[in-house]
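Morning - magnesium ion inputs below, output right after.
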Amino acid sequence: RIARAQGRRLVHCGEITAQMRNDTLSVERDLRRALQQKEFHLVYQPQMDLRLGRVVGVEALLRWRHPERGIVSPVEFIPILEESGMIDAVGAWVLDEACSQARHWELAGTPLRVGINLSPRQFHDTGLFDSIITATRKWGVAPKHIELEITESLAMQDPSRAIELLARLRGMGYKIAIDDFGIGYSSLEYLLRFPLDTIKVDRAFVRNVTESRADRAIVRAITVIAQTIGISTIAEGIETLRQCDFIEALGVNEIQGYLIGKPMSPADIERLITTFVRPGKGN
Ligand code: C2E
Ligand code: MG
Ligand code: MG
Ligand code: MG
């Protein structure tokens, strides 16, 4: 994502550039309208606990229903929201909407942990802490049902500030997850100083887990460390039963991916949990 955003800045000659600039500007204009016109909505992707065989959480994922272009992927417009500064307003909307939904599930007697993505730019916004508290209190949702997903790069940009902010939130009962976790640029030692509840293992290590010894070793190393420090793991992007079996054997706690369900509407989540049968295991 960052590479793409940089790529956009790096090309700067000829008509293609003018066209690209125009595109970005028109998308920016469209995005400004989108919030007022209620063109955003959230979809929710289920997360299954492997030991319980139950859906215990969901991740809220942003969608934009563009009047002409149809549903636009967040991969396309989140970088633009970030660069233009609109991410703070849209991020606050996401928090409000996701908290409202989490409260709805609490009241229905089917509480689900709801994961919310925070972007690096939002993290620099000093109002982020307030936005989180405001949305949670407004709806009266229990902080333990809100899981804030941050990325490794975000956490490492200003580690001491990140640690302080996350520790405060965690102290209030919010869950903190590190998203797209690999064995990336940050030193593992540093990462272990972060106040975390969950590591989300990047889809990149899941994709070839059945064939690649190296990927299995990486996932195993992550689960061993997680178990040692008492935090939970979620594997992202599980599409097949075979991947699920391997991942379970490596000691991962939860899975998220098309095998369990694609991102879907709240009504579809409710249908899924009432009729849910764990895939495989003789089913
Ligand atoms: P992410 O947080 O890592 O979310 C997981 C992405 O993987 C989602 O893409 C999801 O649809 C996709 N995915 C899940 N399971 C599978 C699978 O089994 N196979 C495959 N091929 N893909 C799977 P999506 O919804 O397009 O979101 C992309 C990214 O956009 C997210 O990655 C997140 O970084 C960002 N994003 C989404 N919603 C928000 C938001 O509300 N705020 C912020 N700041 N970022 C968001
Ligand atoms: Mg995420
Ligand atoms: Mg992720
Ligand atoms: Mg990802």
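Note: The first helix runs from residue 2 to 10.

O.
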